[in-house]
Amino acid sequence: MGVGIEVTNLNAWYGANHTLQDINLNIPANHATALIGPSGCGKSTFVRCLNRMHETNPIARVTGSVRIGDLDIYAEAKPVEIRRRVGMVFQRPNPFPTMSIYDNVAAGLKLNGYKNRRSLDEIVENSLKNSALWDEVKDDLKKKSGASLSGGQQQRLCIARALAVDPEVLLMDEPASALDPVSTSKIEDLIFQLKAQYTIVIVTHNMQQAARVAEKTGFFLNGRMVEFDSTHKIFTNPSDKRTEDYITGRFG
Amino acid sequence: MSTNSFPLRSRLRTVTDHAVTGLTILATVVVVTPLVAIFAYLVYKGASSLNLAFFTQIPKPVGVAGGGMANAIVGSAILLAIASAIGVPIGIGGGVFLAEFGRGTKLANAVRFTADVLNGVPSIVMGLAIYALIVIPQKHFSALSGGVALGIMMIPTVCRTTEEMLMMVPHAVREAALGLGVPNWRSVLSITVKTASPGIITGCMLAFARVAGETAPLLFTALGNDFWSSSLNQPIAALPLQIYVYALSPYDDWHRLAWAGSLVLIVLIVLAVSLVRYVTSRGVLKGAS
Questions:
Q1: A220: left (phi over 0), alpha (psi -120 to 50) or beta
Q2: ipTM higher than 0.95?
Q3: Which of B173, B174, B178 to mutate to test the interface with A (most CBs of A within 10 A)?
Q4: Which of B63, B67, B40 is closest to B55 using CA atoms?
Q5: pTM for this structure?
Q6: Does domain B52-281 have CATH number 1.10.3720.10?
Q7: Considering only CB atoms, which chain B residues are within 8 Å of A139?
Q8: Could you report the per-residue pLDDT of B267-277, keeping only the tens digit for each?
Q9: Which chain A residues are closer than 8 Å to B171 by Cβ?
Q10: Which residues share a beta bridge with A14?
Q11: Please, which residues bridge with residue A216 across strands?
């Protein structure tokens, strides 16, 4: 089951660049939350702070606290433990090119030392079913490379790979921006189904997409969170003038 | 622009296209010709001296008919096995350090510089160095010292190609592994190195083929041996050494054996490289890049 996320006074820097400033936000469990805003506003940095992926960049620095469920991820856990609980899907599909479809999905478990073959088969099947890819790949699981699939299939493979480690939260950083409309709508349907089991945070440039999939929406601008509210309110009656300007297309 | 300048330019483009295509074909021919010529000449000069005895007998004294290079073939195999056991792991380890763990550090820059310098050290100097470091303290020539000399010569090539190949693995692939909660060291070994492995294997094969034909580093280390020996502590025969000795001799039948030995050396290198390629390419999946 998904858990809520509580962000308090989060600040982030890349070198001297203060990319996130005083972010406070409560992301509800088992809902989809969309983050919108113009390029470079800090939304990608923000989701990368939720699983400590930003630390893979040596010049990055963070202050403040993030609680995922009842775990303070900066004070009480190691990055690798958090990343198993908080899965991530990236902007461009990034399957492991030398691995079969099966091994791609099983990678997170295998590389962390999980060895039970029979239940691995089951986990792979369930993950592929949950990511709506099973029917398309079930005959080539071990024969074809993950890289041989189409872009949209690759992205669903990456979602299956993230689901296989059984996370509580799923972060999606513009998961459909490199995909065609048909693949995009499949991913959106998927987000709809997945939020019953996971807490989903999705970064998107596409405001219709935010409106379609998310209950809550946050608007980021220049490293600050301008407004966070129900998606309906953000798109019909925003409290902040800047949010209104952005969603009506006056800038960004 | 006048209306008929377009067909003119189009004709010019067609001519340029053909010219450049022709030049690339010419370049290919120039590259391949020496290889084919050398191989054809070796077959012409050497094939007639090849017989079963060549592969089963040890050298006979001058004037005695027959004799072969069986001991040199086995000796080369032993020397190259020692060399690979030293050069491949150290080289790959160094390359992984340069590309993954030490990137941008002073130590990495020093290692990279050292590898490049080592790559430029003449092979005869490498032989002398190992002579001073191993042969003199041991007070005798040995297969081990020859293997070490060849192994050290393999390190820089393997190291730098490993580094280059790892740098070519897309950042997105590393991120995918880290995002699954895989520790960095595990991600490097199981994902990055595995993704780059075809290129790394090519680097190892290049280094292997290069040292397989080296004579100079073996002159004061492995020394050569006219008899059977598989002891690592004794001087050992090697194909390049045997070819060197036979080619410089004044005897015609030794010259013929030297040609045959050269042919066998080249064929064995090609076979070894092809075998490794075949074995490592098995199980590669459809559509894997």
A1: beta
A2: no
A3: B178
A4: B67
A5: 0.85
A6: yes
A7: none
A8: 999 998 898 88
A9: none
A10: A17, A60
A11: A33, A230
